[in-house]
Amino acid sequence: FRDYCVICLRWEWPGSPRSIEKCNLEASFFEGHFLKVLFERMGRILDQPYDVNLQVTSVLSKLSLFPHPHIHEYLLDPYVNLASGCRSLFSVIVRVVGDLMVRIQRIPDFTPKLLLVRKRLLGLEPEGPIIDHMTLLEGVIVLEEFCKELAAIAFVKYHASSTP
């Protein structure tokens, strides 16, 4: 994180978000094509290949590390106020988790299968027979790890901002 801060110093980013009085509240919000694609991909984490999920979460993690107040607020603050129809990383994850909760009801032996897939991904279990719902199970594991990574990033950024 400190490396990112050093790199970003030359960009002279503000230290805090712009006050609401200075914002154009009439303009509709658009996250931009880049974040739009990342959020759409994140929304499909349960249905797309493992390597795609790793790439998407890697890019979002790197973006979350940037010490810009608006990027921090938009990607890491679950309480950010959003206009109707807008989404944040948190709202995308909440939607995915809601979908997951419905879908796991239809998967017999979900927890043991998830544990087996995790062990295989870690190389602790040899490859064996194909497991049903493999893409979804790998997506769940990537989602779990990504949420832990976001929590760690928020923790580091918080402590870095409160340390002189």
Summarize the structure.
The protein has about 160 residues and is an all-alpha fold.
Give your account of this protein's structure.
The protein is mainly alpha-helical. The chain has one domain. The protein has 7 helices and no strands. The chain has helices spanning 2-8, 33-43, 50-65, 69-76, 89-103, 110-121, 134-162. Helix 3 (50-65) crosses helix 4. The model has no long low-confidence stretch (mean pLDDT 89). InterPro entries: FHIP, FHIP_C, FHIP_KELAA_motif. Residues 31-123 form the FHF complex subunit HOOK-interacting protein C-terminal domain. Belongs to the FHIP family.
Order of helices and strands: HHHHHHH
Q: Poorly predicted ranges (pLDDT <50, ≥5 residues)?
A: none
Helical proportion?
Answer: 55-70%
The overall number of domains is: 1
The profile of the biggest β sheet is: none
Radius of gyration: 18 Å
Number of helices: 7
Distance between the termini: 15 Å
Chain-averaged pLDDT: 89
Strand content: under 5%
SSE class = mainly alpha
Oligomer class: single chain
Shape: globular
Number of strands: 0
